[in-house]
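Appendix B. Raw example, untouched.
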Amino acid sequence: MPTAHSDSSHRSFFLRAAALALGMSAGLGAVPALAQQEPMQRRSAQPPLFSAPASNATAPAADINRDMRPALEAANLWLGLADVNRAQQSWQQAAPVFQRAISAQDWASSLESARSPLGKVKSRKTHDAVFTRSLPGQPDGEYVVIQYDTVFENKAEAQEMVTMVFGIDGRWRVAGYLVR
């Protein structure tokens, strides 16, 4: 059984992953991502695909039962657009922070270069989801960072990270995307 310390370490690691995605260039299929912490469910070990400075913030007690289903549903719909290479539509559906980070044309090019070598999605499973109210370098708000284990035609073990932000319009939108 995991200890409280190992769970805390895992949370910090996941938040570091989100913080790194904030600073990545869009040319590699990544745009700013955002995330603090609150597990959706008990998590298994996370592969070491990201690293960044630690954020030791914790979720307020009031957020322990935060319903992340709307964020997950919005992320899955958005990923569906990316899966069929509808870059323009995925850019239009993204959060303003995403749109400010990369133009629609550059996003289309980045999505094509990042995803076409991988082939079509064969399966995608939610690996982890973390709710947070703060991320390094981002205004306080409501964020959910979601990690997926994805199987593509040409890559059997890939990870995707989607960062969702709750907008002033009351909708969850993609603020960042990364595929490895």
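End of appendix B.
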